[in-house]
Design brief:
alpha+beta, single chain, DNA Polymerase III, Chain A, domain 2, 12-stranded antiparallel sheet, 7 helices, 42% strand, 8-stranded antiparallel sheet
């Protein structure tokens, strides 16, 4: 195998595919590598940990068709370190030579036959506007759990809803829910799937360039089978195994109504929360919100450090009430809301509260209060 490619193009392809490569010690050493294949002038780089697969296709100058499996992070670091310009890869049976300008590296490779045989990517079943999907993922994925002991909560529910699609994630302390109007991505007969949040986090990284197009023409291809889902962004295909199991019944967590409503400037609330959070030294110290007509007072009391408080102008309807929250979780919810203002709806100091935008209901962030004496 031999090909030549611009350094920056190659760095991006290697780095992108490497994000699917396992960081843990593997019984199959080849899983620590990326499969690099050149056919004609088409270069394909594939990384996988068997749960997540990222396949990148770019243009290159193909000099000799072939394939090899190279150590993912080492090769990416080597190419990144080279001077700008053309980089040449030439591989034999057990090593690859990487050269550019006056630099030359020879790196041991893994046997190609040890790399998993991956199914060819399916064609896209539907396309989704990239800006809308990127925004929805930004709002929802943050609420998924990182605890592998509860695997179902490490996923994002993608469910067919009347008039569109609903994304839901929860770690049992908070829940994020976003509705997307229009044609749903699920195939006919599939009411819902559970996509690992890790895969959607990687998809978010692939989309900024596409999602920033002002004309909104950028799209993400999507296809799904019983076992996996594939997303296509430009020349990158990301395939992930679906989680197997039933997502918790999130609807029962949503209160039927809220007697108390706080309307406050988003940036003013965020700034105040970030200031008083400076006294928080662990995840058990809450921020108390004392809500009354005209303002909300934020208070943090840390026995070891001290205490802080700040008043923020706000509109409030309901009984005067003090509710305590995990400050990081509350900041996450407020950050995710679009617009200049946020609404915080509460029942009492023990039931879930909702953070949302005042004028539209397509995004909701439910947050469990912290019990304080």
């Amino acid at each position: 195998m031999k090909y030549r490619c611009e350094r920056d193009t190659l760095v991006e392809a290697l780095a992108t595919a490497s994000r699917a490569v396992t960081s843990r010690a593997s019984t199959t050493p080849a899983l620590n590598g990326v499969r690099i294949e050149v056919v004609g002038n088409r270069l394909t780089v594939v990384g996988t940990d068997l749960d997540l697969t990222v396949r990148v296709e770019v243009e290159a100058i193909g000099l000799d068709d072939g394939s090899l499996v190279a150590p993912a992070r080492l090769v990416a670091d080597i190419v990144r370190s080279l001077e700008p310009g053309a980089v040449t890869f030439e591989g034999g049976d057990d090593e690859v030579e990487i050269s550019a300008a006056r630099s030359r590296f020879v790196v041991r490779t893994y046997p190609v036959e040890d790399f998993p045989v991956l199914a060819d990517p399916r064609p896209d079943q539907v396309t989704i506007p990239a800006p809308a999907l990127a925004e929805a993922l930004r709002q929802v994925v943050r609420a998924a759990s990182n605890d592998d002991a509860r695997p179902l909560l490490t996923g994002v529910l993608v469910a067919a809803e009347a008039g569109g699609t609903r994304l839901v994630a929860t770690d049992s302390y908070r829940l994020a829910m976003r509705d997307l109007a229009g044609e749903g991505p699920l195939a006919e007969g599939a009411e819902q799937i559970l996509v690992p949040a890790r895969a959607l986090t990687e998809l978010q990284r692939l989309m900024p360039a596409a999602g920033s197009k002002e004309d909104g023409a950028a799209t993400v291809g999507f296809s799904v089978s019983e076992l996996d889902a594939t997303f296509t962004v430009g020349g990158v295909r990301l395939t992930t195994r679906l989680l197997d199991g039933k997502f918790p019944d999130y609807r029962q967590l949503i209160p039927p109504g809220y007697p108390n409503l706080l309307r406050v400037g988003r940036e003013a609330l965020l700034d105040a929360l970030r200031r008083v959070r400076l006294l928080v030294r662990d995840n058990t110290t809450p921020v108390r919100l004392s809500m009354r007509p005209g303002s909300v007072e934020l208070t943090v009391v840390s026995q070891e450090v001290g205490h802080a408080s700040e008043d923020v102008d706000a509109e409030y309807e309901g009984e005067e009430l003090t509710v305590a929250f995990n400050p990081s979780y509350l900041i996450d919810g407020v950050e995710a809301v679009l617009g200049d203002e946020v609404v915080l709806e509460t029942v009492d100091a023990t039931k879930p509260a909702t953070v949302r935008a005042p004028d539209h209901d397509d995004y909701r962030y439910l947050l469990m209060p912290v019990r304080v004496s």
